[in-house]
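User:
I would dearly like some help making sense of a protein record. Take your time, and here it is.
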Amino acid sequence: MKRVLAASVVSGGIVAASLAPAPASGGAPIPEVGGVPVASVADIVSRVTPGVVGISVRGEVREVNPLAQDPLFRQFFDFHEQPIERETEAVGSGVIVNAERGYVLTNSHVIDNATKIKVTTKDNRSFDATLVGRDTGTDIALLQIPTDNLTAVPMGDSSRLRVGDFVLAIGNPFGLGQTVTSGIVSALGRTGLGIEGYEDFIQTDASINPGNSGGALVNLQGQLVGISTAILAPGGGNIGIGFAVPINMARDVMDQLTRYGEVRHGHIGVAIQDLTPELARALGTVRTEGALIARVEPGSAAQLAGLRARDLIVSVNGTPIHNAAELKSRVGLAQIGGELQLTVDRDGAERVVDVRIGKPTAVRQYLGRR
């Protein structure tokens, strides 16, 4: 399964490979676990791979005959504007995250237009999967399969990742079967890619290819830290720039999908933008990061909490906010009816504001408006 984004091929899942000692002339340095150099990650791979699955999808799409849009052909043929039904097939990857309940995380785009979803485990057992729910805003979907001797991949804490950490990617590239690749975390908090509505990607150089969508990104403790989603591919192939949804975000989505069958995205009623050097000079602040409030919706939770235009939000519940996309994700995935504690820089002075999370308005959603 792949998607095209500008000059990018979007795919997901990931692949992981054992790390051999790097030659002196080049290559990745040898990773360490507990301060001890690791010449092989075979033990980690053997624990994790039973929890990574292949996903095959059959579906139907309805398309309008393109000739029906041509006035010349319409003069001579009667198309009746009837859409054409076409069967589709696709492959991707997924990760078992709860063996007792048979829950499998994957990408939402993997199961687009699906009428039948089949999950295949590493030991070649196949199960018909039920869709619990999906969220296109984060590109996360949750499937359920029979709980028949399954192995889950333990979920880690993606907030503890650091640039330079070694990671393994496991998935089903090109439908070849389970494959493992390795790399490092190249960057964190990647946003502004225009792939999803809520972006906070882990960037990695672990090889990701079509068919890997929904696969596992794991650390050297064998913990799931991301669900791989996209690659930047100007030439149509992997160039070492891949993106994964952080597992903390995927876990929040999963919690809502199991509870409601959908994700109820939160809203506080603000239009926000990134803090640029020009805006920082205009505000008279020495800060270089944050989410700047451009407008507050009248009668919104933000107005009731006392937030104003030109307020700079710098943290949520004590965690720093680097840009508008991060704030959008934190608010959008917060529980409706709950509260967030925002640290705000107003005229050079910090203040803490508690704001209650509401539902998006029917007219438009101000938070992160594009």
